[in-house]
Amino acid sequence: MPLHRFAVNVPNPAAKDVAVTLLLKPMARAALTGLRLPIPRGELKVTGVGLTLDPCGEAGARTLKLKLKPSTSVEVWVVVTTGSTGPRGGGAAAFHLVDRRAGTTGGVTVVVVDPPSVQPSGSLVKPTRPCRLVLATAVYAVPSGGDPSLAPSKKLFNSDGAVDLVAPITNRTENPIEDAKVYLEHLGGCDASFSPICWNAGTLKPGDVFFATWPLQLRSVLPGSYAASIVVASRRADPTRLDAPIRILEESKRSSNSGARRPSTRRASTRRGT
Amino acid sequence: MAAGLEVDDGNPVWLSQAIVPSTDTVVSLSMPPSLAAIHVGSTGVSVYVKVDNIGTVAFGVCACATPVPASWPVVVPFGGFFVSTAPHPPQTESKAGVTFTYRNPTNPAGDTLSGGGVMVSLGLVVSGKRAWAWSPDGRLFAHVYQGSGNDWYLNVVALQNVTRSDGTVVPKNQSAIKSSGIFGGPFDMTAFGWAGSRAVVAAGVGATSGISVQVACPLAPPPGVWGTLMPSFPNVVDWTHLVSPCESFVAFVPQILQPTMTMGAFLISTVTGMQTPFRKNNAPTSVTIRGPNPSLTTTQHAANGLTVDDGTGQKFTVDDPECTMVPGGVMVTVDRVKASTLPSANLGVKSVGSAALSILPIGASAWVKVPNPSGWANQGETHWCLLAQAYTADGTTIMRPWNGQAVMPPSFPLSLPNCAQRNIEILP
Lengths: 274, 428
Known about the structure:
The structure holds two protein chains of two kinds. Chain A is mainly β. In chain A, about 0% of the residues lie in helices and about 50% in strands.
């Protein structure tokens, strides 16, 4: 018999003792369907359900009474045993764990799924009307307030202070792109702080490059490679994400920002999507 | 005009469909992702949050709404000017209930402002020479007087509470800015002028040589005064002072009277009180003037939206300094907390991450991608709550509703429209 366990935290954030009554109630099938969860459509045959404080327990009562000291919590285990899955190849069942205590009622819902969910591989969701602006080159950094059109010879970041992140945005189509806008959505998990800015790049003719910049504070930022996201938008097009890999070097491996040059608008490749 | 953001609640409330953890690569902000099953070791699972603009304020739009094309007007010289040390009765000028009274140097009451709740002493003008003007919007009053020599003293007084660009407030009756300088001779009626209602421009012959110029910006953070001494080329170069359509900049533009000469124009920000370069596609550039009739015209609030006539009829474009960059917008922050039977307990809130949404028109929606750099460790429990909130980056228009990383955070304000929750399972 498949055994399903759920650890549920029962807290007492108050400053005095509290008595808690926990109660398990089955959730109606229609209500479970109404949640629109990505779960098998079949119904699981539940052969046993209970509450226990034993992490290894295999059964328990449907009601459990607890006394909790101030500012403490306990782990309660919801244990559900089910029969074998039906001919449809899987099913689900759900229970409300109701928490009743003086002056309040809380609770959680646990959903038993058999077989367990598996993580699907992500798919590419393409826009219907993508903005045609692209990165002329990979993004790079210049000293704070520096000329963003002068790219450093090595497109690496130093982790020692304030810089401007530069995204050279260009139009590689054969027609002007009107009402162009650019902004930085995120730094891919890099913990550098940035100031949200939207750039109105106006009309970009074919081959034009607009140097969008955002001040970054890199002090104490963890070195590593990150996938930043830059959003471009234009008239009659969907706002579109551009992949913008960035790399934060350790301070001991700082690169110099000498040898500045203007980025080529022809050689660099640009990937769309993150 | 009311700003409003919404992250849709679910039905039940803990199952918001506007919060979706996903491994999808969603290129467009208008397309929803598909739900991922999260495991402790999952990588590449970001949290997408759908944010709706339910207010009447568009985000990512420049605050300068002046219709274009708009020519940059010339700084307007002060209208008030009086000089006399001879005895005379107090004289007055009034505007919008406030009266400026200027008195003989022997009258100890000196120059004053009064009426409408305003009561300000501007001091005794021993030289008997002063100039003055209300700002065009009537919120400020500028008074300048000559000292014992060719020195001058400017005082800009707030006639009502005014808010500086850094958010500080200058109370009514207080001085918003003071500055001083020395010219090579007595100042005349054209030496001082209002640049819109944001700055006072002073220009005159320098004490020793050249041209002394100064821009006093009462709405900039202190000190808010920019000044320099420029070389003088009499009968070869003259200068005109222009104001941007939304008064954020003063342009010093040379008028080239001899065709062999060229000279650059430059900008002073009335928001910061500092010099700012002209830019083209956001790279610094120079604006060279070659003739006697230069002009600036904003044609669009964007890059290359400022058309420069170099004085000879030749035109070129640079970025509109007022609207090419629009700071601010919307921030989205996601936290997660172990599900418990008492949702308000907030035991051990973990940060997922934040992301920006810098463009969101009125009535529009966008899916914001919030990466999770810290992984999906589940601390031995599979049941977690994702808590998403949307607010404005300026911290004031729509304040951040909740800080889950604070010590002992309060309950997540789920009842607010810009807060929502989705419970998820983080599998071993």
